[in-house]
Design goal:
98 residues; mainly alpha; 2 helices
Length: 98
């Protein structure tokens, strides 16, 4: 009888350990989901910051180009008009071939 009682106790202990393990797995799964979500948010924030910095650079470069073009037109209006006419002619020729 002592052997049967020892097996019963061992089986009950094993069942309790399995239930504890199931609970731990559920907790671990939830924790991994939270970590993944947080990591995804960090990556998105980093990408947004990088994009904003690049956009600011491009905007600054475009503003400088506009100022340079404006200065060029003010300094050499005849040449600017000639260049504009040439570009217009080329665009017209390209568009008429289609």
């Amino acid at each position: 009888m002592a052997t049967a009682n020892a097996k019963k106790t061992t089986t009950e202990d094993l069942a309790k350990q399995i239930e504890t393990l199931k609970g731990d797995l559920v907790d671990l799964t939830e924790m991994m989901g939270k970590v993944g979500k947080n990591k995804g948010q960090q990556i998105a924030q980093s990408a947004r910051e990088t994009g904003e910095a690049q956009l600011a650079k491009v905007q600054h470069g475009a503003e400088r180009a506009v100022h340079k073009a404006d200065d060029f037109v003010n300094e050499k209006p005849a040449m600017a008009l000639g260049i504009a006419a040439g570009i217009g002619f080329l665009v017209g020729m390209t568009a008429s071939r289609r």
